[in-house]
């Protein structure tokens, strides 16, 4: 692979190759002596984050360092963008320095594709672009879900919440449905995109209490930072009552997933967030392994 801008061209076989590699890397994380590799020795990777991040940014940096890459953390504040340099000139400047890979998060949908066209020869890896896609999130989720259930074939998965603003929902629906899951989107209509069913599942406006048969309920944070002022938004209490995961609304045995960060008391109660039936921290751990696998596939073995 030359990079990872989205999952549009990923087949079931691609996911299976990824899962094999990522689960090996996840096992290696348990050994402090065995987890350090030199697969990316001599490669320079820049992490270019224009939006806030904890999980994606730290786990990419950890994955890059565990694979032996030289890592540069770039941030827009303090850069020459503040002196009027365009993003295009900034990107060409970084390429001229000889970087090999670039992990990017940006609020504009399609920004990683723009960089891929602009910087041939540099592996562009998408750390989240607007509400369009977050491919490495979906891959790490696939790793955790597959490890927990063995297979997603025929598993009912409910993706609940702010689907309209969610790059995670789009990527997770694509990856999980390719691997055989049956996707349902749940949440108030005001938080759904007009074409919600084109994302690969059916839409049910019901509250979580009505969702009885799910193997996984995948919760989304309400992204207030992406909402337009005129959009209708239910109150936090009202939202939690109908669409929040609580010990009352989620049957025992249903697995809870969440990409993080979580908002306790909104989409998830503390009892569920801290309870035994969620994969939230396992997803975080899978994040390091999944990103090691992606970096290996994109940059490992490049002469
Ligand atoms: N899930 C996720 O992308 O989290 P961060 O915003 O903390 O990276």
Automatic annotation (TrEMBL):
GO terms for biological process: 'de novo' pyrimidine nucleobase biosynthetic process; 'de novo' UMP biosynthetic process; amino acid metabolic process. GO terms for cellular component: cytosol. Its EC number is 2.1.3.2. The keyword Transferase applies. Pfam families: OTCace, OTCace_N. L-aspartate binds at residues 83, 167, 221. Keywords: Pyrimidine biosynthesis, Transferase. InterPro entries: Asp/Orn_carbamoyltranf_P-bd (IPR006132), Asp/Orn_carbamoylTrfase (IPR006130), Asp/Orn_carbamoylTrfase_sf (IPR036901), Asp_carbamoyltransf (IPR002082), Asp_carbamoyltransf_Asp/Orn-bd (IPR006131). This is Aspartate carbamoyltransferase. It comes from Dethiosulfovibrio salsuginis.
